[in-house]
């Protein structure tokens, strides 16, 4: 029973980190600026056409998010399966993952620079015309093509998934990451005029957002390296005994 309770408590901080990482990924300098052009590309009209409501971007955005979510869910399942296969080496795996996540955080903080993380391997999904299938394929391409760009955030969540040892837990973490990244896309498509205005106001703060993401990566990396996630989980169970009922 204690193992189930501990797994439940351990999932909560990891779930919060996954959701926050998805939102910060959307706000990152390599994703936020391309949102309006991507929405325009998926609908087959220009950005001005979107603002004039010549064609709705909502349905393509839904299938775009489904496409990128498909890739992330498969990644989460694979990472969890890998962690489960090497369950006896979980401590070593967690420490190695912690070091890697810290290094990626230092990249975002500009303490060190990792050149390949500054580029995207974009995949051409062909000209889109507002079709659901084309938007889904574009979502798949986005998830694969922007992996170097959002790799540090994604790597952090995959590390949490791999060190969890449960297939459902790892898949759920990547689902939350996809939710945090995908829902803003849907909101932008639904409220395109307001979204473009808001994005323009956020752009001056993109470097700050990047550094916040870097700090989050370093914190999570240190927690993985030191085993603090387990300690925090015990504290959660002691402070909030009701969490045991969720198990």
Automatic annotation (TrEMBL):
<feature type="domain" description="Cytochrome C biogenesis protein transmembrane">
    <location>
        <begin position="16"/>
        <end position="226"/>
    </location>
</feature>
<feature type="transmembrane region" description="Helical">
    <location>
        <begin position="133"/>
        <end position="154"/>
    </location>
</feature>
<dbReference type="InterPro" id="IPR051790">
    <property type="entry name" value="Cytochrome_c-biogenesis_DsbD"/>
</dbReference>
<keyword id="KW-0812">Transmembrane</keyword>
<protein>
    <submittedName>
        <fullName>Cytochrome c biogenesis CcdA family protein</fullName>
    </submittedName>
</protein>
<keyword id="KW-0472">Membrane</keyword>
<feature type="transmembrane region" description="Helical">
    <location>
        <begin position="56"/>
        <end position="80"/>
    </location>
</feature>
<keyword id="KW-0201">Cytochrome c-type biogenesis</keyword>
<feature type="transmembrane region" description="Helical">
    <location>
        <begin position="174"/>
        <end position="192"/>
    </location>
</feature>
<feature type="transmembrane region" description="Helical">
    <location>
        <begin position="212"/>
        <end position="237"/>
    </location>
</feature>
<keyword id="KW-1133">Transmembrane helix</keyword>
<feature type="transmembrane region" description="Helical">
    <location>
        <begin position="92"/>
        <end position="112"/>
    </location>
</feature>
<feature type="transmembrane region" description="Helical">
    <location>
        <begin position="6"/>
        <end position="35"/>
    </location>
</feature>
<dbReference type="Pfam" id="PF02683">
    <property type="entry name" value="DsbD_TM"/>
</dbReference>
<dbReference type="InterPro" id="IPR003834">
    <property type="entry name" value="Cyt_c_assmbl_TM_dom"/>
</dbReference>
<comment type="similarity">
    <text>Belongs to the DsbD family.</text>
</comment>
């Amino acid at each position: 029973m204690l193992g189930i309770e501990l797994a439940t408590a351990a999932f909560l901080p990891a779930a919060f980190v996954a959701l926050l990482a998805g939102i910060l990924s959307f706000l990152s300098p390599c994703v936020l600026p391309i949102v309006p052009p991507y929405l325009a590309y998926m609908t087959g009209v220009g950005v001005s056409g979107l603002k004039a409501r010549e064609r709705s971007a909502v349905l393509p955005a839904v299938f775009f998010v489904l496409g990128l979510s498909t890739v992330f869910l498969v990644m989460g399942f694979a990472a969890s399966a890998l962690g489960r296969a090497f369950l006896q080496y979980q401590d070593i795996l967690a420490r190695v993952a912690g070091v890697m996540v810290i290094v990626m955080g230092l990249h975002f903080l500009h303490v060190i620079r990792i050149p390949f993380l500054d580029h995207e391997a974009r995949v051409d999904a062909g000209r889109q015309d507002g079709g659901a299938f084309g938007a889904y394929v574009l979502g798949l391409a986005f998830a694969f093509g922007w992996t170097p760009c959002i790799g540090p955030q994604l790597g952090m969540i995959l590390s949490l998934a791999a060190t969890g040892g449960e297939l459902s837990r790892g898949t759920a973490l990547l689902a939350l990451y996809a939710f945090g990244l995908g829902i803003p896309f849907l909101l932008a498509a639904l409220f395109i005029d307001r979204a473009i205005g808001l994005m323009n106001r956020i752009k001056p703060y993109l470097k700050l957002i990047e550094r916040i993401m870097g700090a989050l990566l370093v914190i999570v990396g240190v927690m993985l390296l030191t085993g603090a996630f387990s300690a925090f989980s015990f504290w959660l169970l002691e402070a909030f005994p009701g969490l045991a009922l969720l198990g």
